[in-house]
Structures are given as C-alpha cells and as structure tokens.
Amino acid sequence: MDNDKQLDKNEPEERVDTSALRDDPELDPYEIEFLPEFQQGRGPRAPFVNEYGVVIGDHVYESANSPLEQWTENTDPNVMAGDQWVHPYKDIGFQTTENREFFEEGIQPQGGMFMHPDKDVAYGVEQSGEADEDRAEP
Are 87 and 47 in contact (CB under 8 A)? Predict the structure, then answer.
C-alpha cells in the first residue's frame, strides 16, 4: 500500500450495492450445471418465501422471520429441517464434491456404514472380538 494513501478508519468503507444482482442466476455462486434429468420438476430458480415468511435463495441469511433470529431454549430444532429451507438451485451444499459429481456427472455417491470424513467410528470393532449381540449383560 502506498504510504500517501493511508486508509482513514473513521471514513466509511465504500460498498457496492449488489442487491439487484444477487438473484441473477447467471451470477449465482451456488448454482451448478445440473444434468437435464436433475432439472425436471426441480422447482423455482427464483427465490421463494417459505411457510415461515423467510426468503430462500436470495443469500441474505438473516431474516427477521427466521426461527434462527428468534431462537430460545424452547425452540424445537425441527422447525429448521425440511425442503422449505433449501433452494432447489441455489444451495451451498451443491458445491461439495459428492453433489457436483452426482448432479453434474451422474456419478453415484460411494457411501458406507458409519461414514465420517476424517474418523473411522468402527475402528477397533473387529479387533475387540465383541459385537453388540455377543456382549453379556452385567
């Protein structure tokens, strides 16, 4: 940085208003190139309002109507589960390797029991010689 151009911390940072662009599917960072079979009946490309009055797909993740903004110890986490919280085209989850391979190339995910990205939760089961059904009750 040039010493003559020091930033004045009291001056507001210049910001570009991107609100008019955030819903343009051509500019959407979360969309992928879905194969034709995954585009049929997928749902709207435009943002939509779910049953809680929250806009889904505009990438503004704070909404006054969202249960996340009104969370208390009495809030049931299930209110945030379900398709009404996921946009059919604009979801950050589409960027995972598995989802890109599946939706863009048709490669089925390779799953397995007790899958975890960096932990083998079944490690040692074979060596212990014990299985749940073999364990005696104390």
Answer: yes
Residue 36, number of CB atoms within 10 A of its CB: 6
For the stretch 111-135, pLDDT in tens is 666 566 677 666 666 665 555 555 5
Cα distance between residue 88 and residue 44, in whole Å: 7
User: Which of 120, 36, 50, 129 has its CA nearest to residue 83?
Assistant: 50
N-terminal to C-terminal alpha carbon distance within the chain: 71
Q: The pTM is what?
A: 0.56
20 has a pLDDT exceeding 80 = no
Is the confidence at residue 100, as pLDDT, over 60?
yes
48 in helix, strand or coil? strand
- In whole angstroms, give the CA distance from residue 71 to residue 63: 12
Length of the chain: 138
- The token pair at 80 is 């945030």
